[in-house]
């Protein structure tokens, strides 16, 4: 897979290093001469250019890329790069870094963004995930279809504790993608039984998150009739 990364700062270089280790072809683009540090990621291609310029992206042969990552420290630049990558070069997958959480609402398909990654939001979500039981935590937003990757740790008092996955009437537009139980990562087969303390990861429509949390979080007692 060929990946172009706009922004060769610490974030861009770290992403490039991970992708190269996984066998991908990586091009780093930055307009600042001081950012061009070939010795730090020697296996990557490097291009000294402004990623907001069509001529630069032509030189980068963006049309041959499977993924473009807009990873600069400037949200305006990341939006422009995302829009050009999607509309001018038809890049199948565009991932954009969100530096200021106040700008997150802009990072959607209208600007060519398939996946928006907000570092402050992600760090906050990881903190919540570490300490929250029974509360839905949003980990990642997918622009297309208004879906999110969400996590919930099943509390002991949940009505679903001890229930098989296939017996649960899940909300529409939600999909249980994995169960993390201690050090194990489990595929959620219909026969798998949900246990207290399980970390459940879902891809869910935002409109269904509250319904999903209500289903998983607490045991609903019957309300006595008056």
Automatic annotation (TrEMBL):
<protein>
    <recommendedName>
        <fullName>Trk system potassium uptake protein TrkA</fullName>
    </recommendedName>
</protein>
<dbReference type="InterPro" id="IPR006036">
    <property type="entry name" value="K_uptake_TrkA"/>
</dbReference>
<keyword id="KW-0630">Potassium</keyword>
<keyword id="KW-0633">Potassium transport</keyword>
<dbReference type="InterPro" id="IPR036721">
    <property type="entry name" value="RCK_C_sf"/>
</dbReference>
<dbReference type="InterPro" id="IPR003148">
    <property type="entry name" value="RCK_N"/>
</dbReference>
<dbReference type="InterPro" id="IPR006037">
    <property type="entry name" value="RCK_C"/>
</dbReference>
<keyword id="KW-0813">Transport</keyword>
<dbReference type="Pfam" id="PF02080">
    <property type="entry name" value="TrkA_C"/>
</dbReference>
<keyword id="KW-0520">NAD</keyword>
<feature type="domain" description="RCK C-terminal">
    <location>
        <begin position="137"/>
        <end position="218"/>
    </location>
</feature>
<dbReference type="GO" id="GO:0005886">
    <property type="term" value="C:plasma membrane"/>
</dbReference>
<dbReference type="InterPro" id="IPR036291">
    <property type="entry name" value="NAD(P)-bd_dom_sf"/>
</dbReference>
<keyword id="KW-0406">Ion transport</keyword>
<feature type="domain" description="RCK N-terminal">
    <location>
        <begin position="1"/>
        <end position="117"/>
    </location>
</feature>
<dbReference type="GO" id="GO:0015079">
    <property type="term" value="F:potassium ion transmembrane transporter activity"/>
</dbReference>
<dbReference type="Pfam" id="PF02254">
    <property type="entry name" value="TrkA_N"/>
</dbReference>
<dbReference type="InterPro" id="IPR050721">
    <property type="entry name" value="Trk_Ktr_HKT_K-transport"/>
</dbReference>
């Amino acid at each position: 897979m060929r990946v172009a990364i706009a922004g060769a700062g610490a974030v861009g270089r770290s992403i490039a290093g991970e992708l190269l280790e996984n066998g991908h072809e990586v091009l780093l683009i930055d307009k600042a001469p001081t950012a061009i540090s070939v010795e730090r990621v020697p296996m990557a291609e490097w291009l000294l250019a402004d990623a907001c310029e069509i001529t630069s992206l032509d030189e980068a042969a963006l049309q041959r890329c499977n993924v473009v990552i807009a990873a600069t420290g400037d949200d305006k630049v990341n939006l422009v790069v995302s829009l050009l990558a999607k509309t001018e070069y038809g890049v199948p997958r565009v991932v954009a870094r969100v530096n200021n959480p106040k700008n997150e609402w802009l990072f959607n398909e209208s600007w060519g963004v398939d996946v928006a990654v907000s570092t402050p939001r992600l760090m906050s979500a990881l903190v919540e995930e570490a300490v929250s039981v029974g509360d839905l935590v949003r980990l990642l937003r997918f622009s297309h279809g208004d879906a999110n990757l969400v996590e919930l740790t099943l509390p002991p008092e949940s009505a679903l504790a001890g229930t098989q996955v296939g017996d649960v009437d899940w909300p529409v537009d939600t999909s249980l993608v994995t169960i993390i139980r201690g050090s194990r990562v489990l595929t959620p087969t219909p026969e798998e039984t949900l246990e207290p303390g399980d970390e459940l990861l879902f891809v869910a429509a935002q409109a269904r998150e509250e319904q999903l949390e209500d289903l998983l979080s607490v045991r609903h007692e019957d309300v006595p009739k008056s």
